[in-house]
C-alpha cells in the first residue's frame, strides 16, 4: 500500500470501513442492553415480569419483544430488540444517505417506552440503533423523559446523568444532542415539547461535521442556533458512546421512579395523566419517523405500537387552570430549558 | 356572444365557472347541515346539548365548533363547520389540482364524528366540503360507519339509505363511491377497514371521468377493479347531491342508535369498545389527509382533534377469541362487503 492511498489512521472519514465483526458486536451490545434494562426494571417493579415474544421478519431478520403489564410500578412497558436486513433502505433514509442507494442494508436496535401507573413517575423512552448499507454505517438513538407532575430535582438529575455520560466521551455531545432532542420531540400543532427531553442523535458516522437532516427542525427556530459541530470520531468511539448511553438509562431513571412509586395520588392526577398520554400518542403517530415508517411498510405492528399507552383520554378544549400545578408543567417543563444549570434549591 | 365561443349548455367541462353566488350557497348549505344534524342528535341524545365555540383563523376565515359530551347516548361528539380562504392551497392538494396553482383558494366544510357510550351503537363520521381556487372548483365528502358489536341489519339499512340517496342523483354514484370509501378508510398496518364503510368521494368537479388521486389505493388491490366512470355533471347537480348526502345522515343513523341505546352491556363490551377506538385514533393520525394536513399547517388543533375518542385503550398482542362475537367483527365486518345485497334474514 502506497502512502498516498493509505487511510489516515488518526482521521477516520466517511469511507472508513467498520470492523469485520461490526454487526455481531452492535447486535450483541444492543441485546445485552435489552437484558440489562429488563432486569433492572423488574427489580424496580417488584411485582410483574417481562413476557417475551420472538418474531421473524419474512424479508429478513427478526426480534424479541418484551412487555411488562399491570405491575407494581408499570401499568405497561415494552422493551424491543430487533435486527433486520433487506435489499434496500426506504427512500426517506436514502435522502439522508444517498451513498447507501443500491446496497443491501442491515439495521439493529433496542427501543423502550415505559408507562408507569403513578402520575408522579414520568414516562420514559429510549432507542439506540446501528445501520450499515454498502459503504456507509451510522449510529443513532437517544433517551427522553416525559413527566406528568414534574419535580425540578428529578429533571435536573436525569439530564446531569446523561450529560456526565456524554462528557466522558466528548464534551461537545451533550451540547449538540440535547437541543437536537428538543427539536425532534416537538409537537408543532400543540407548540409543546413532548416532555423535558434528554438527548437525540442520528446518522453519526464519525464524520467531522454534524449531519442534520432536512426533516430536523420542527422547533428549529427555538434551539438550532445552539447546535455546534462535532470532531471526527471512529467506529469504536461511537460504539462505546452508544453503549455508555444505553447503560446510563437505569441510573438516570430508576432513582426517580423509586422516589415517587409510593406517592399518593387521586382521580385528578390520574385524569391529567391519561389526558397527557394523548400527547404521546399524537407524537408517535403524527411525527415519529420510526413509527410511521414501520407502519407504512411491513413492520411488526404490535411491536411498533407497543409504545402507545394502555389507557388514554382526549378532552376537547382542555387547558390547565392558571396557577395550578398542571399549568406549571406547560409553563416551565414543556419548553426547551437549560436543565443541567437549573437553579434548583 | 358568437356561437363558437358559447359554452355548451348540455356538457359542462372543467372550465365551466360556478354560479356567481357559489361560495355563499355552499357555505349556507353546509351551515344548515350542521344545524340540522345538531338538532337531530340532541333529540336523539335526550340529555346533553351541543356547546358551540366560534373561532377565527388569522389567515382568513373561521368556523363554529360544536361539542356534545357526557350525554344520554353520546359519550362525546363533535360537529364542525368551517369556511377558510388564503393565498394558496397546500402542495398536497396542488398535486391533484395543478390548475389551482398560483390562485387564492376558498374552502368550506362540515364534519362530524360521534362516539356513543353504548358499544352496541356504532361510531359514525361524516364530512362534506366544497373548494374553489382560480379556474377550478370541486365537491368532496362522505360518510362511514364503525361498529363495535355490529348487527347485519343495521349495516344493510345504513348502506341502503345511502344508496337510495345516491341513486336519486346518479345510479353510478354508489357503485363508485362505496369502494372508494373502503379504500380510503383502510388501515394498511392492521389489514382492516376502519369499519363497514359507506361512501367517499373527492375532487368532484363535474368532469366526465372520475378523478382518483395517487394517494388513493391503500387497499386498492381489493376493490379498485370495481370502480367505474361517471358522466359529466353540472355544479348544480353536484351541489344538490352533496346536500342530499348530508341530509341522509339522520335517517341512516338515528334508527340504529334508537334501536340500541338501551341495550345492556358489561365490562367486556366496554373494554372491547375502548380497544377498538384505538383503531380510530390510528387511522385519523396516521392516514387521514385532512387531519394530518390540518395539524402540520396552522389548523385549529382542538377542532381537528375533536374526532379523537374521549377514552381509548391499547393492548399489546390482543386478538379476539376464535368464534367469539368480537372475532365476527374482524372476520366479516372489517372487510369490504356488498352490504346492499347482503343476505340478511
- Summing up helix and strand content along with how strands pair, one would put the structural category of chain A as alpha+beta
Oligomer: homodimer
Shape of chain A: globular
Order of SSEs of chain A, N→C?
HEEEHEEEHHEEEHHHHHHEH
Helices of chain A, by number, come to 11
Biggest interface, chains and residue tallies? A-B, 35 and 35 residues
Main sheet: strands, sense, barrel of chain A:
7 strands, antiparallel
Strand order of the largest sheet of chain A: 1-2-3-4-5-6-9
Helix content of chain A: 25-40%
Rg of chain A over CA atoms, rounded to whole Å, is 20 Å
Q: Give unreliable regions of chain A as ranges.
A: 1-13, 213-226
Give me a quick take on this structure.
Chain A contains 11 helices and 10 strands. The first copy, chain A, has 345 residues and is an alpha+beta fold.
Describe this structure as you would to a colleague:
2 copies of one chain form a homodimer. Chain A has helices at 22-45, 91-94, 152-169, 173-184, 220-223, 235-247, 249-260, 267-287, 289-296, 301-304, 325-333; strands at 51-56, 61-69, 74-86, 105-116, 123-133, 136-146, 186-187, 192-193, 197-204, 311-313. Chain A has a 7-stranded antiparallel sheet. Helices cover 37% and strands 22% of the residues of chain A. The radius of gyration of chain A is 20 Å and the shape is globular. With 345 residues, chain A is an alpha+beta fold. The interface between A and B is medium-sized, with 35 and 35 residues.
